[in-house]
Amino acid sequence: MTFTLYGRLQTRLFLVGTIGVIWTAIVTPILPSPPMTGYGGIGMAQMIMTKDSFVILPYSRLGLDYQITFETIGLVAVLGLFWELIYHFLQQFRWDKDWPPMFTLLAAIPEGLLLWLVINLIGVEHGSLALDSSGFAMFAIHFASTWVLMWLFMVGPLHAISLHWRFEGGEFYERKHSGSTSAL
Amino acid sequence: MGLAVAQTDCANYGADGLRNHDLHHKVLQQHAKQGAPISEEMALACVWDDQMLLDLGIETKFIPFVTIGGGLGSFAMVDLLRIAGVSSSDIEVIGPFDKSYGMLKVLLDNSQIPESERIRSGSSDRMDNLWGWPGYSLEEAFQDRRLAPIWHSVTEPILSEYHTPRASQVYSGIDREAQRIGWASMFTRGRVPFIRKRREGGYYIVIVPPENTSLSKLEIHQAKYVHLAVGFSGIHSLPDVITYKSKNHNNTLESDGGIPRVVNVYEPHESIYQHVASNPSSILLRGAASSAMQVIQRLANDRKIAGSNVKLYHLIREHPDTAHQPLRSRIPTKNGFALQAFTFAKGSFGGQIQRKYRKLQDDEKRVALLGSIASTAIPRRSLWEHQLEEAKRNGWYEVLVGSAGGLEIGANGKVMSNIVKSDGSISRIETDFVIDATGVEASLEDHEILSDLVNCSGAKLNSIGQLDVNEAFEVEGTRSPGTDPSKPGRLFATGIATLGNPHCIAMYSFWGLQYSAWKTAEELSKDGFSKRIGFYRSTTSWIRRMRNREP
Predict the structure, then answer these.
(1) Mind telling me how many Å the CA of A55 is from chain B's nearest CA?
(2) SS3 state at B345
(3) Domains in chain B, ordered, with CATH?
(4) How many degrees, rounded to 5, is the angle at CA B184 between CA B183 and CA B185?
(5) Shortest Cα distance from A162 to chain B (angstroms)?
(6) A180 touches chain B (CB under 8 A)
(7) Is the pLDDT at A182 greater than 60, yes or no?
(8) What is the pLDDT of residue A140?
C-alpha cells in the first residue's frame, strides 16, 4: 500500500469504525466470556450463579462482554494512531516509500501484545497478564479475527467504495493544500 | 534513461521555438496547396467560426467530449467518464489504432515482451478496472486454479517478487472493458493534425484518415471539451545513433537478408536474434533499464535453447554507487543494477512521494525529484539474477562502463563504437550489432498537434518543455469561452505530454493515466458534465463492472 501519514490515520479510524464495530457487534455473543468477578459499575443488576454461590452483579453477562470488546477495539483505534506514527517513520527507510500489505497483517503481533498489556493495566480486563488468564481467549479470538477482517477489507473491498482512498494515499478526506492553483 | 534525455531535448526547445513556428506554417501551407478544402488563410487562422465553415460547405458534427490519441490515456479517460454517468453518444475517441493498447503492444512486442511475458506493472494497476480490485493476481489465481499468485500479492515484495500481469491478461482485460463501455461505438479511426478554437465557444477538431499526410480528405468535428492523450512522440535514440543511421542507411547485414546493424530496442529487430541464433556474433547493448534486461533475457534463452554463440557487451553509464547516500534514500542494488520494482518508486502512486512532489512549488525541484524516483533500474526478478550470474560466469556477457561517444563503420561492415570512460579516455569496440535501449521520446515539438497547440491555441510550456497544465490537467491558456464565459470550452491533457505537472509524478504509468483522468472527471463534474464518483456511485459502479453490465 502507498500511504501518506494522514492516509494511515484515516484508514485506521475508518476500518475500526466500520469493520471493527460491525464485527465486534456480531462476534461478541459467541466469544468465551471471562468470569464476572471483580467487575463493577452502574447498570442493570442481574443475579448470576458462579461456582460457589449466587451473586448480584450490576451488568448482564452480555453487557459486560460488549463493554470489554468495544473498549478493546476503541484502544485499537487510539493506540493505533501512535502505532501509525511509528510505521510512518519506518516507512522512511524504504526506498519505495511504501508499506507492503504483509507488514500491516503482521503488525497484529506487536499491537496485540501491547494491547493485552494495556487492557490489563487500565482495567478493561480483570484477569492477569499471563496468557492462560481467563480473559485471554476472548481477547485473542476477538482481536485476531477483527484484525484479519480489517486487513482483508483493506486489501480488497475498500478499493471499490472509494476512488479517493485509492488515488490519494489512503485518505478519504484531503486537507486543502497550498499548491499552485489555476490562474485561468 | 529516457527522462534525462527528454530534459535535454526540452532545454533546446526555447531556441527552436521560432524555427518550429515557421515549420508549422509551412506544413499548413503545403496542406492548403494539396487541395485541401480549407484555404491557406484559414489554416493559419487560430480561431475559426461557424460562418467560415458554412462558406466552405463543410458540415461539422458536434460531440460534447472528444479525446484525441485513442491509446491508453484516452481509454482511462473514457472509462472514467462512462462510470461517471456520461453516455457513449456524448464521447468520441479519435486515434490510429482500433484497440487502445495498439501502440503499447507494438512497443512491448518489439522489446521482447510477447503476450506470454509479464509486463513491469503492479497487480492492482489495471487499465480495465478503475478500482484496481480484484487485481490481476486474484484473477490469475482464479483462472489458473492456483494459489501462488495470491501468495505473491500477500507477501510481495518481502517474501516474493511483485506479482506482475502477463501482457495477454492486460490486453484481454482491456478488450472486455472496451466492450462493456461501448468503445467501438465511440471510436473514429483518424489522425488529428490540429484543433482550432471556435469563436462561438468550444473547439473544432480536424480529422484526416491516419494514412493520409495531406488534409485533402478531412472531416471536422466540434466539441465542448477536448482531451489530448497523444502519448510518446516516437522512438528515442541517442544523437550518435541518429547520425549513424542517417549516414549509413544501407549498412545492413546483406548476407542475411538486410538485417539492420544498429537498432533501437523498440524497433522491430527479431531478425537480429534469428541471425545470432545460428551465427557467432557480437552485440553491444546500451542502457540499463528493464528494456535492456529484456534483451539479455532473450539472448540467454536463445543461448540455452538454440545454443547460439553470442558475445554481449553491455554499456552502462555507471555502476550505481549508493554508498555516499543516506540510508533513507539509498536505492537497492544487485549485480551492478539498481533495483526498483516499477518505473517509479512505489510511493509515487498516490503515496508520500506524490505528496512531497505536490508540495514543491519550484519546477526545478519537481524535475529533480522526478529524476530521482524514475531512476534507471530493473525490477528484482530471480530469473534475471540467475541469467546475469550465469552469463558473467560463462564469459559471454561483459559490462563496460562509459558513455556512448559515436558510432562508425568498422571492418567488414561491423559497427565501431567509441566509448568515453569517466577519466575522459576513449576506447573502441567493434561488434556485429548495436542495440540501443535508452528510452522513448517525449519531445513535444515532434507532435504536430501539440506544437500547433503552443503556436496557435495559447498553450504554454512548463520548465521541462511539456504542456503546462493545472491540477485538473487542464492545459493552461487554452480555454475557449465563446459567447458564454461561464461555460467555456476546456482542453485537458494526460500522459507524457503533461510531465512536470503540479499534481501527479508517476505520469507515464497505468496508474498515472487513471489518476489524471480522475482529476479531470472531478473537474468536469463541477461543470455538470459528469457525475461525481462518491461512495455510492463508486460502489454501485464497481458492482456493475464485476457483473459486466454497461456502466
Answers:
(1) 50
(2) coil
(3) 237-321+376-438 (3.50.50.60)
(4) 90
(5) 6
(6) yes
(7) no
(8) 95
